[in-house]
Amino acid sequence: MNQPNVEGAIAYALDRLAAELSPEMTYHSLAHTRDEVLATAVEFAHAARLPERDADVLRVAAAFHDVGFIERPANHEICSARIAAQVLPAFAFDARAIEQVMSLILVTRLPQTPRDFLEELMCDADLSGLGGEDFLERSAALLQERRAFGSAYSEEEWWQEQIAFLAAHHYWTDIAESLRAAGKARNLRRLRGRLTQVVREEPETEQESGARN
Predict the structure, then answer these.
(1) Which domains are present in the chain?
(2) What is the pTM of this model?
(3) Do 33 and 129 meet the contact criterion of CB atoms below 8 Å apart?
(4) Are 63 and 14 in contact (CB under 8 A)?
(5) DSSP line for the chain
(6) Is pLDDT of 208 > 80?
């Protein structure tokens, strides 16, 4: 039996993201997949001492998890899983590995509901950026992306939503908790400071102005 061409499959996904993603994908970009989710999947797989096959499946799923954005933002995970199923046979992946990759892609849908340790690692890799140094900048990029596709968030609404998301979120694995939880707590404090700043900077309404005059 041929060994799956893991590096070729990863390169395929990254090449399609580079060539076909809309420039309006300011958050779900090539860099998000390559430098954040895929890089973290490698980090977590090493920390977990995964068997090589499981680590390879995790890496391939990370590379493909957002490729569906080349077709549409809505339900992009389903598109990503379908694309993986279509192309991975050409890279000598067997049916079991393809099914596992598809499951790892689909488990990134919110709310996350992982069923095993590998799915937990995938979920944690996908949201590892919550504990990153550049979280506020990345969050602003996500707001820009959402607005580009029709969402009408105000600054205050956006930061309130981000605070609620971080406050409710938990990492599934001890690995992610130990490596990202402190950064996530720091970012939650930074978000609350950002919201306070936005509220202070908002122009007063006509009603507020009239009440003072």
Answers:
(1) 1-126 (1.10.3210.10), 132-201 (no CATH)
(2) 0.90
(3) no
(4) yes
(5) -PPP-HHHHHHHHHHHHHHHS-TT-SSSSHHIIIIIIIHHHHHHHHHHT--HHHHHHHHHHHHHTTGGGGT-STTHHHHHHHHHHHHGGGGT--HHHHHHHHHHHHTTSSSP---SHHHHHHHHHHTGGGGSTTHHHHHHHHHHHHHHTT----HHHHHHHHHHHHHH---SSHHHHHHHHHHHHHHHHHHHHHHHHHHHHSPPPHHHHHHH-
(6) no
**Whole-angstrom Cα distance, residue 92 to residue 146?**
37
Tokens read off for 162:
């981000």
In the chain, the percentage of residues whose pLDDT exceeds 90 is 86
Write the single-letter amino acid at 30.
L
Q: pLDDT class for 209, splitting at 50, 70, 90?
A: very low
